[in-house]
User: Fold this.
Amino acid sequence: MIGIFDSGVGGLTVVRELLRRSPDASFVYLGDTARLPYGNKSPETIVRFTLEDAAFLVAHGATSLVVACNTMSAHAVDALRKTYPALPIFDVITPAVRVASHLGAKRVGVIGTRATVASGAYDRLLEAQGIEVIARACPLFVPLVEEGWLDDGETKRIVKHYLSPVRQGDVDALILGCTHYPLLAPVIGRFMGRSVSLIDSGAVVVEELLKGVQLDSARQQSYFLTDRSARSEEIAQQWLKRPVNFDKADLLG
Amino acid sequence: MIGIFDSGVGGLTVVRELLRRSPDASFVYLGDTARLPYGNKSPETIVRFTLEDAAFLVAHGATSLVVACNTMSAHAVDALRKTYPALPIFDVITPAVRVASHLGAKRVGVIGTRATVASGAYDRLLEAQGIEVIARACPLFVPLVEEGWLDDGETKRIVKHYLSPVRQGDVDALILGCTHYPLLAPVIGRFMGRSVSLIDSGAVVVEELLKGVQLDSARQQSYFLTDRSARSEEIAQQWLKRPVNFDKADLLG
Assistant:
């Protein structure tokens, strides 16, 4: 059983990719919607919340963990590996860096939340491969996606505002370093132009997962949120193109 | 000692108004930044978090409470009054409704988070006064304010997107039903036109507070956040025009 988790519903883009590749995979999803977003929180709080989320998934039978959130991947994966040394743990950052390197990119743009960008996690790994990095925090992208404004005029202007310096930097590839961002891929792709490869950090972690773990194909698929709301169900249904029933996860006892 | 609280830094617009009116007032501020925003959470979660926040303030000497958050005011004030029957408790909704009524408004616009608008709290109170209501949730306003885009082209377009139906409704007044929104008052005011009075729910609660409570003027002023970050300090300094030191509040034990 795969445990997949995020601070909210963003990680469902990873679930979407997993279901596309392997519709019968068993998994349990947790979104910590009661405490989202993690992207503006301090590193110590992010680590604490991540460990609480993981404990919930392990208690629900997870035998591998997919950290479907760049903020947690940037700050809390070491703590997670230390706490669960026997579990395969997949973060969303290293596979994206590997893909950028395989593409032969010389200069790469990285976009994400404030916390992900401030962590410098992508920069360190990319620069170690000799790749130059232009990073940019895009705090309004998550609320735009959650509002459902995926291709509106306002969204196009905000994409232009954030990404102009990245486009001017003449990058070969752009890492979508937040699991919400794949839903903006069409408008981002049009702005950046065809010569720039978009790397979806959520899609590449699924690739990695399918290579690294023997799937249980019993199609046991469950979804938990720490706070349920009608809006989360609307979003999940729009993204996954199917009705999703969320159960309530109570992490705080 | 006044206890003032919000899900985040938004309630600092209430502090700003209090300091403008009474610079020496003693107060303790709490922003639950570790779990913000409350605006998209379920009513039961909002009630639970609000009671935890209030307990922290009472433990820190608060003898009156200002719920500087419309989402909490809409959902959790009854629970708060039941828990602390002896404390004066000020919410941000009833004073704004009273002002609208005093202005002789016939038709009033109300804007706020998704949870505030869905609660119908303003509608019920305004309609009881024979006032017609046009309500609109504006989920992107809080992230825009936190990003500091107070008067940018993108913000103007988003204001137009959300408020066009309210302007077409030919309202006499517009209640800014979220403590972040006063920072957008200039751009909102220009869009709505001079004939529409803007009612700042945070400013009017301070008015109410100054009438209802004997202030302690020892200038003991402290600020707590459940999660501190450099960004919160930047925001506080920009809004209050002074450096603010936040202490860490640990609600969760």
User: Anything to note?
Assistant: The interface with chain A takes residues 33-35, 40-42, 45, 114, 139-140, 142-144, 146-147, 152-154, 157-158, 161, 227-229, 231, 252 of chain B (CB under 8 Å). The longest strand of chain B covers residues 107-112. The mean pLDDT of chain B is 94. The radius of gyration of chain B is 17 Å.
